[in-house]
Amino acid sequence: MRWKHRRKSSYVDDRRGKKIARGGAKLSGGMIIIALIYAVVTGQNPLSLLGNVMNTGGQTSRQEVEIPQQRSPQEREQADFASVILASTEDIWKKIFSESGQQYKIPQMVLFDGQVRSACGVNSEAVGPFYCPADQKVYLSLSFFRQLERMGAPGDFARAYVIGHEVGHHIQNITGTSRQVREQQSKASSQAEANRWSVLQELQADCYAGVWGHYANRDQRMLEPGDVEEGLQAAASIGDDTIQSRAGRRVNVEGFTHGSAQQRVKWLRRGLQTGSYDSCNTYAEGA
């Protein structure tokens, strides 16, 4: 993809290196200053003094502690890539919404590693990228890009498709589609029926990712030969049947929550080919 030297999003919250501390103590600024002054006068290690203060006093809390880390050039490049792709989705969806007389509300993207706290709870990077409708933020651990490669889906557009898919969930949230799906799931007579609604929602997000890709290619000239194939390969690699088979399990269609490889490829391709938001009505058309 031709993504370098393009605008980066100003809606990225980089929380990498921040760890969630449980049962720690909050230190006031005054407590820290007193400990440091005492350390200078006595010659003691200020870190040891602060540790003693945390063990003996202060208010216990659950907080994020930042651990400074050196980022490799590859890690910095991946973060820049995610920011550029988010900026591209901002420009394209703002235009699509404005053409229908609507205003697009830009989501924030949170980059994290390890664990992250959102309005939807505390999640591990093992769950993969996710969108939290309660705070309208996309959460992404860049380690998932390496996971994609291990699943047979390398390449820039494979990574971009993942971001476009999560932004698709944001669109579903701000347009009310997510709420309607939850209502239908609450009325479902079985888990299989509830899963079917989840599949339709995920396939629509795939289609929205394709719509973004259509305009990223047509208007922004971001795509290069082979990029579309990378995206379609990524969609196939994270199909429910592919994942179940890779795990050595029997393929169980009723247990699908995201759609089969064939379905995911179909709807991503639909968005890429049509560039039409209206063409992504999976609920009316079925999987």
Features:
287 residues, alpha/beta, globular, 2 domains, 54% helix, four-stranded mixed sheet, 11 helices
Concise summary:
This protein has 287 residues and is an alpha/beta fold.
Write structural notes for this entry:
With 287 residues, the protein is of the alpha/beta class. The chain folds into 2 domains: 21-63, no CATH class; 70-285, no CATH class. The chain is built from 11 helices and 8 strands. The strands form 3 sheets. Strands 1-4-8-7 form a 4-stranded mixed sheet, with helices on one face. Strands 2-3 form a two-stranded antiparallel ribbon. A two-stranded antiparallel ribbon has the order 5-6. A hairpin with a 2-residue loop joins strand 5 and strand 6 (121-124). Helix 3 (73-99) packs across helix 5, helix 5 (156-174) packs across helix 7 (191-218) and helix 5 crosses helix 8 (227-237).
Helix content: 40-55%
What's the main sheet like? 4 strands, mixed
Strand-pairing-aware structural class: alpha/beta
Number of domains: 2
The helix-strand sequence is EEHHEHEEEEEHHHHHHHH
Mean pLDDT over the residues: 87
Report the strand count.
Answer: 8
What is the percentage of strand-forming residues? 5-15%
Shape type: globular
Please mark out the parts with pLDDT under 50 across 5 or more consecutive residues, or reply none: 23-28, 46-61
Strand order of the largest sheet: 1-4-8-7
- How far apart the termini lie comes to 29 Å
